[in-house]
Amino acid sequence: MTYCEFVNNLAEDDNNPNKDYHNNHYGFPITDDNELFERLVLEINQAGLSWLTILKKQSNFKKAYDNFDIITVANYTDKDIERLLNDTGIIRNKLKINAAIHNAKVIVELQKEFGSFKNWIDTNHPKTKEEWVKLFKKTFKFTGGEIVNEFLMSTGYLVGAHDHDCPIHKKVLEFTPAWNKKS
């Protein structure tokens, strides 16, 4: 079952956060670096867990990671790591926490070189999924194939977020995702 089918099969009165995510966020292009960083951190934290778990904890993540302000997270200290490891509102996995901090530091460097994290992604677009995975693994921590695929699909860089007959697919196209831009 595709994500679109799953969401469309939820009961009308089901307050599942997947509905909002599917209808208003998944596959839509993101231009703000902090939002891109947020999506990357959430995708990393989803590894081994359900996306519903991450969506239910998203506001906790936002608070714990200072609204995903890249510069702030890049400057986290051991005290911040300890705080995050003790925060029951997020996923308390040291490897994932360390990856978020490391990746924030990398993004700061990419911003210096390319002007923004988004510009770095745009400079490397288009690539195949395999090429993206190789680049992300070389650049970031905790970025395996599924994490990279979902990050890029969910932010409009790889096709496949929505079924072609899904009404949201047409809405996404209105925002000209990178995968649908003419060279």
Automatic annotation (TrEMBL):
InterPro entries cross-referenced by the UniProt entry: Adenine_glyco, DNA-3mA_glycosylase, DNA_glycosylase
Keyword terms, alphabetized: Metal-binding, Zinc
List of residues binding Zn(2+): 4, 22, 162, 166
Q: Would the keyword Zinc be found if you checked this record's keyword annotation?
A: yes
Top-level taxonomic group: Bacteria
- Answer yes or no on keyword Coiled coil: no
Q: Which GO terms describe its biological process?
A: base-excision repair
List the source organism: Dysgonomonas alginatilytica
Name recorded for this polypeptide: DNA-3-methyladenine glycosylase I
Signal peptide from the UniProt entry: none
What the entry lists under Gene3D superfamilies is as follows: Hypothetical protein, domain 2
What does the record give under GO molecular function? DNA-3-methyladenine glycosylase activity; metal ion binding
